[in-house]
């Protein structure tokens, strides 16, 4: 008799009838296979191998290595257990196929309890092999160091007991002399170079965090130090080019940030109750690499941080002007007051930018979006379709049964289309040189959000309708203000582990106990410290927020939630575009120089805004309005 976990071939199935429980398990296993293939690209096999994918048995759903490994070892000698970070599955490789078979038969459908005390069911499937890309970075950000066991457990206890969280912080006296003596000792031993004169104390419960940020340049000097007490934590450091480095800060360790790590990299703590850590290192400091054979979970405790800074008395002249509030020039663009200003804004911060970044931009735009593919493939054979704002032409070859033509404002992007043997030409999306009523369908993907006024955005929509024949359809995609919808983060946000979205940041920060701006004794000009903040201020304007005419456009932080509808989005160029007023270098970064940064204008749409703009048009009906991975989308039909 076959065990419940065995997937039988057709000959065996004809001789054995599965029970109701076995059928349910089989359905779950098949679903797990499809999910792994669709979302992770992991292909399972129907025959026995040494390797098994364990669905639901991953760090991403709070199953630790110490919890899973003993369960797997009951079935045989485990050669390797691979647990990729933040994934809800793992891969186990046994010494023999027979042991792998035993695990498949025994553990498929087995219920275990995760580290949060919740019951989960494991589903196992055979694979030939499973590999995950590992982080290439093996060094701390420049200027960052972590010094372990910087104080004794006795001093830790004294520091924690010296904080009275119930008192009004404005009426508290300075901390005991122990802080003074500890700082003097660190100076003498060379751990720090300058004596701080300001202190911030934070306490974090498990599950709390702090948004990714850079301490204000103009407020504090170069060296910023933070002492971790009570519990260890993983802090995420992120470079502007997207590189994220998780660093373990052990209990009683001192984090020292200077230079690039202080001025350029953001640092923050992701709100969660467990950290992914190196199993072999325990709580030792260092980078948490993506070595899937050596990752496990570590439950957070209550951590108190003592962060010392020295108040700056003169403007900052660091080597990172793009992120320096002392050196940063005014945002180079303002919200337009007229159509003429809107046209100039689009020329400077859309058209010229795409002309410069065309090749690099094209190299990142290669995977068609499924719903757009579905729209194109559903059109009748022989349809004439115009892609207005076609970019590098990634949708022009989706359906060979269509006659597709593309246009774009960028000559360089059109050249790429032509290199790929697509029909494309240069034009303005407000004046497309195609006869009215000649197209069976049009698509406009990620284009209309680049127009700088509501009137110009409606005009772009009207131009699409003009091209359509009666009964013709248009598909329109624009960026959404809401990058988290129906409690799900968009891919745009999910690609940044450090950023948690504004709602989550606010809710988690509100529960962090904090004593701010405590002045250490014997320092001059103390009053200046009370007017500065340790974290750059941010506001969540929401979809009701409006830019005031002549106000400066904010520069967005990539892979974070939007906090303004009209903004400049950075493009970190990899190449050598030459000097340009729209480009700001980050400064000397050595081997990590991300290249110049271009800024592109966007108007991100709120829920219902695109649909409302379409309803102002004559002779159209809206067939469908939906949200797709951080975009608002409309399918309209000309009537």
Automatic annotation (TrEMBL):
InterPro entries: AlkB-like, AlkB_hom8_N, AlkB_tRNA_MeTrf/Diox, ALKBH8_RRM, Methyltransf_11, Nucleotide-bd_a/b_plait_sf, Oxoglu/Fe-dep_dioxygenase_dom, RBD_domain_sf. This is tRNA (carboxymethyluridine(34)-5-O)-methyltransferase. PROSITE patterns: FE2OG_OXY (PS51471). Its cofactor is Fe(2+). The keyword Oxidoreductase does not apply. It catalyses: 5-(carboxymethyl)uridine(34) in tRNA + S-adenosyl-L-methionine = 5-(2-methoxy-2-oxoethyl)uridine(34) in tRNA + S-adenosyl-L-homocysteine. Keywords: Cytoplasm, Iron, Metal-binding, Methyltransferase, Multifunctional enzyme, Nucleus, RNA-binding, S-adenosyl-L-methionine, Transferase, Zinc. The keyword Iron applies. Residues 195-312 form the Fe2OG dioxygenase domain. The gene is ALKBH8. It is found in: Cytoplasm; Nucleus. Belongs to the alkB family. It holds the Pfam family ALKBH8_N. Catalyzes the methylation of 5-carboxymethyl uridine to 5-methylcarboxymethyl uridine at the wobble position of the anticodon loop in tRNA via its methyltransferase domain. Catalyzes the last step in the formation of 5-methylcarboxymethyl uridine at the wobble position of the anticodon loop in target tRNA. Has a preference for tRNA(Arg) and tRNA(Glu), and does not bind tRNA(Lys). It comes from the Eukaryota. Its main location: cytoplasm. Its EC number is 2.1.1.229.
